């Protein structure tokens, strides 16, 4: 029973609490016990807020006996990535030099999740400054994939994905500036959504990467992603971008199938080339499933054109955070030095190039309702696989691996990674669905239709199904 509860969805847990079949205190204790057992092997949490979580859970257990109307995630334990501050709790940004620095404010996404009844279990692992598609910052244990501990859970939201996949929480917040929600979801057999630009506020800190970055959820079910969106979406005073919330709700849109859609199938990203055969096979299998569901499927090609270099310029300027460069890991240190020679004029020009290229990409997507692509161009890599490479070599490997992801950060389109089976090593493979601008609801509706036809939520890594000692 405890194992099934640990791997149940956030919405199912909220329902059980509302019906008084379980209490927030029981659920929170279950997850804290699992974190104590599994986190030393996974490196998924940097900070565990056990005492605060139990206090909150005890108060909510009393409240649940008195109140008939409860918010949507009442009593459900959640996790927040360690790039997002929570007041009174350390926020490291993956930098060991400040791992004990306590945050002085709350990120608005956490404020909204807390108001919805969520109970914070702790802060999850991130790559240093959120820079990389793996989660191995110096001074911290590497985050590991519950499906095979020798492999990465992805990055930079690797800790959030590892925690959800291992049944240490049902839903976790991540952030995505170049694939950092979708990549970890793919590596860990989960669903991860990068919302449209302006859908979720970055308050109170502000935008990142010239509007390329956004918060987003990682979970086991599409319905949980939609519930997260309903809770966290919406304008906050002073936001530079915003979108109106949809009618009906995102959750309601997952409960009805979309009309037949025209879907462009992408297995080649120019000028990078074609994806690894296992990733191509996953896309082709998903295309056949979509065709069987009544959608029209046609080949398409995504061309990065001149998007890569200006995105790298934006990326490297984010490494100057006031920390002496010798505290940065070697790729970030190299990017930091290059950023020192990036003039303000060059940065502005790069921003303009990103926006111009993004406009062309959206026009390229215009004939289709949805694009289907690999999430990554190759299967999951090992922990430390690129550690011995030079910064230039590492950057080249990263660009090829994550090629399907950053373009849609630049264009601001919604994109979701969904499970698409396993590779020959038994590690998850994901595929990406990309929607029209502001088309989050259609994307969630399609993903839910796929989930119903090809369920994945019952898949559990063997490592995480051992009994609590």
Characterize the structure shown.
With 469 residues, the chain is of the alpha/beta class. It has a single domain, classed as Amidase signature (AS) domain (Amidase signature (AS) enzymes, Alpha-Beta Complex). It has helices at residues 2-6, 10-18, 24-42, 50-66, 108-115, 158-165, 182-188, 222-232, 250-253, 277-292, 308-317, 330-340, 344-365, 391-401, 406-411, 440-453; strands spanning 45-48, 77-81, 119-124, 171-176, 191-194, 214-219, 262-265, 268-270, 273-274, 296-299, 302-303, 370-374, 415-422, 428-435. The strands form 3 sheets. It has an 8-stranded mixed β-sheet with strand order 4-6-5-13-14-12-7-10, with helices on both faces. Strand 8 (268-270) and strand 9 form a beta hairpin. Helix 3 runs antiparallel to helix 4 (50-66), helix 6 (158-165) runs parallel beside helix 7 (182-188) and helix 12 crosses helix 14. The longest helix is centred in the C-terminal third of the chain and has 22 residues, at 344-365. The chain is globular, with a radius of gyration of 21 Å. The model has no long low-confidence stretch (mean pLDDT 96).
């Amino acid at each position: 029973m405890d194992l099934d509860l640990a791997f149940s969805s956030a919405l199912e847990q909220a329902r059980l609490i509302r019906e008084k079949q379980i209490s927030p205190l029981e659920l929170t204790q279950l997850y804290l016990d699992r974190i104590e057992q599994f986190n030393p092997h996974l490196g998924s949490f940097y900070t565990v807020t056990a005492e605060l979580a139990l206090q909150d859970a005890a108060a909510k257990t009393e409240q649940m006996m008195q109140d008939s109307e409860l918010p949507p995630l009442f009593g459900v334990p959640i996790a927040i990535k360690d790039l997002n501050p929570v007041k009174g709790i350390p926020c490291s940004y993956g930098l060991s030099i400040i791992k004990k620095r306590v945050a002085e404010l709350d990120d608005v996404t956490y404020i909204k999740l807390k108001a919805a009844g969520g109970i914070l279990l702790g802060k999850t692992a991130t790559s240093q400054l959120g820079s990389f598609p793996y989660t191995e910052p110096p001074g911290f244990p590497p985050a590991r994939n519950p499906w095979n501990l020798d492999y990465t859970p992805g990055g930079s939201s690797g800790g959030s994905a590892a925690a959800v996949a291992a049944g240490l929480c049902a839903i976790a917040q991540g952030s995505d500036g170049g694939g950092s929600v979708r990549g970890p979801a793919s590596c860990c057999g989960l669903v991860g959504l990068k919302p449209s630009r302006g859908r979720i506020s970055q308050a109170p800190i502000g935008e990142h990467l010239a509007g390329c970055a956004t918060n987003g959820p990682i979970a086991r079910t599409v319905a949980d992603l939609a519930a997260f969106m309903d809770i966290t979406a919406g304008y906050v005073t002073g936001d530079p971008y915003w979108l109106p919330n949809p009618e009906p709700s995102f959750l309601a849109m997952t409960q009805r199938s979309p009309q037949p859609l025209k879907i462009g199938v992408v297995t080649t990203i120019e000028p990078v080339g074609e994806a690894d055969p296992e990733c191509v096979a996953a896309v082709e299998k998903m295309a056949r499933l979509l065709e069987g569901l009544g959608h029209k499927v046609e080949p398409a090609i995504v061309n990065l054109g001149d998007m890569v270099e200006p995105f790298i310029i934006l990326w490297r300027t984010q490494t100057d955070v006031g920390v002496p460069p010798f505290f940065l890991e070697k790729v970030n240190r190299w990017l930091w030095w290059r950023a020192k020679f990036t003039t303000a004029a060059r940065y502005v020009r790069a921003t303009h190039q990103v926006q111009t290229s993004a406009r062309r990409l959206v026009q390229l997507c215009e004939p289709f309702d949805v694009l289907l692509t690999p999430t990554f161009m190759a299967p999951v890599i090992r922990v430390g696989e690129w550690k011995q490479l030079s910064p230039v070599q590492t950057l080249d490997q990263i660009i090829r691996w994550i090629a399907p992801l950053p373009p849609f950060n630049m264009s601001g389109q919604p994109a979701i990674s969904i499970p698409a089976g396993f590779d020959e090593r038994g590690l998850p493979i994901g595929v990406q669905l990309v929607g029209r601008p502001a088309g989050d609801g259609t994307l969630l509706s399609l993903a839910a239709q796929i989930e119903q036809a090809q369920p994945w939520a019952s898949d559990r890594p063997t490592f995480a199904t051992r009994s609590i000692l």
